[in-house]
Amino acid sequence: LQQLVLNVYNCNIDNMGIAQLGKSISRLSKLYDLFLNFKKCSAISSEGVQAIFSGLQTLIKLKSLTINFAGCPCLTDSELEILAESIKSIQTLEQLDLDFSDCLNFTDFEVIQLSAGIQKCKCLKRLILDFDKCSQVSIEGILMLKATLLKLKNLLHVYLSLVGTKVTREEAENVHKELQHIVDLIICPRTHTMKF
Which residues make Cβ contacts (< 8 Å) with residue 139, sequence separation at least 6? Predict the structure, then answer.
């Protein structure tokens, strides 16, 4: 199996089911493309999320990873730390799409953890990060993310959604000025889309 799409949007899947999924995913060492949609799966707790993120660590041939946890209340520091470690282990990753919109517990600390994981993805060409309505995210976390993006010389396309965060348009513009090596950069601060 080289491609897997798993869409459990708005399902009442529980931790036992998620843990089994994590174990199954970890056995797919030849996987190139993985799409996981857990949007609005409110029954998932910390234990289930950790199982999924831990399962990613064996996917050493993965080129594209999409994870949607929009509207899931269970994401905390410990889960994001596991995700960051998993991303670090996937050196072949060329495309990364992470949707954490409406995750109200998401803070600058989580952005910083993710940045540390993303920094190891030297092959990364396309990055999509959605922090819509993550109202605790501020310029502090985004500056750490910017420092990571500056180190990724193969990065060509970035979409960063910051609608509903504390990041202002002026702050977003300042971040862009230092990311001149990115061919296609779209940042959505607060309520307006800016394409540079």
Answer: 166, 167, 168, 171, 175
